[in-house]
Structures are given as C-alpha cells and as structure tokens.
Design brief:
- The chain is an all-alpha fold.
- About 50% of the residues lie in helices and about 0% in strands.
- The mean pLDDT is about 95.
Length: about 70
C-alpha cells in the first residue's frame, strides 16, 4: 500500500518517513516544518505510534496548505 502525501486531495506517493510531497512540503513555512521534525520520533511510521504533539503540528500544516490552495 502506497503512503500518500497528507495534503488534502494529493495523490503523490511519498516514503512513509515523509509527511508530504515536495511541492506541498515547501508550501509549509519553515518554522512549521521545523516543528514537525522536532516532534517526529524515528520509527513512528513503522510502529504507527506518532505522539499527540506530532499529530497536532501536522494537522496545523495540513490546514495551512489547504488554506494556501483555497480548499479550506
């Protein structure tokens, strides 16, 4: 099963360790991208156990991209 970019409606497959495809990732402000990496725990994509803090900050990034694309 492919792991897709988490941006709303995006169908681009990305490695499980990555949150978004390149084009969507670089829409996210650097400060928010840094917060995502700060909350990322190595191996969480294999164990399927991301922290609440990681889920919260990634939800913020998804919402940001949706707003930028006009789909919020």
């Amino acid at each position: 099963m492919a792991h897709l970019c988490h941006a709303a409606g995006c169908k681009v497959a990305v490695p499980p360790k990555l949150f978004m495809c390149k084009s969507h990732w670089f829409m996210v402000p650097r400060t928010l991208r840094n917060r995502i990496w700060a909350e990322y725990v190595a191996g969480q994509e294999r164990r399927k156990d991301p922290t609440r803090a990681y889920l919260d900050v990634t939800a913020e990034a998804v919402a940001y991209v949706a707003t930028k694309e006009g789909s919020s």
